[in-house]
């Protein structure tokens, strides 16, 4: 397999400021009040795009020069930057070096800011129904977050899956409701692909027929403008299965990839204007759970198989990605769920050991760690 691995290490721009602490009641997923009236964070004039400021570098792990802390939540692995989490879902870097992270706890509805050995801080909480594989499925900061401090999230309630917006005051406003909910098949993904375009990928809610039904939002990839009232979804692809994970290109080419587990097996696809182009399939169903795109590579996490497969990223107009280069994670991190790119071949990964059958958990699970993919000849 030809080697196109690169040594460039372009890092993503930092999320620009620390989120305002949000305190919301989490006893039940009751959205009735928000559905009726959502005064806080209501739609006003569109925000103006402003450059994102770089965060200062993180402080040293032990500024006083003492030994590292000890205890059940301390993982000695220097790549681990968050520990003792409930089962995770979305993960986003919180600084340009990737040494801090924002990570969602699917089962608690919390978004947590963490750094290695540092105190963890809950920066947002949204009420969710975490039965089955539902809950706080994914989140994304507003493209103008330094100005408006808004967070968007894909969540499960008692009646549906929906897109909501969390204001800095803590109010939760429904943006798009009525996405089908099932006992399984709720896991999806969201990503801003432009300032006024939020791309949403949804699971099939346990109903493959619904994923093919144009009248259902289950098993679809669609875009909405989340800054307007009652946005109309523009469907880009149908027929997705479960555990759907978007992975946008960190560059300027606009390419968008998706990993999911469907009727034909686990697969990695390139998202076109109105369809999917399958790049690779795993007939043995190793448990696709996440993906991340680097400068010259695409990595896919396989929770059941406890490994990460990395491919050479296809060139423009090509669907060839070669054979995957596998990196086992069973002895280091266990089962890996969602991932996010840091540029180059670096990424952040979030484990899902607490909810993956047949996985042994450790006292410091679940975790977020930085990880270096090894595409192609890098493994030789």
TrEMBL record:
Residues 49-78 are annotated as: Disordered. It comes from Gordonia phthalatica. SUPFAM superfamilies: Calcium-dependent phosphotriesterase. This is Glucose dehydrogenase. The keyword Cell inner membrane does not apply. Transmembrane segments: none annotated. Residues 100-232 form the Glucose/Sorbosone dehydrogenase domain. Residues 54-71 have a biased composition (Pro residues). Keywords: Signal. PROSITE patterns: PROKAR_LIPOPROTEIN. Residues 1-29 form the signal peptide.
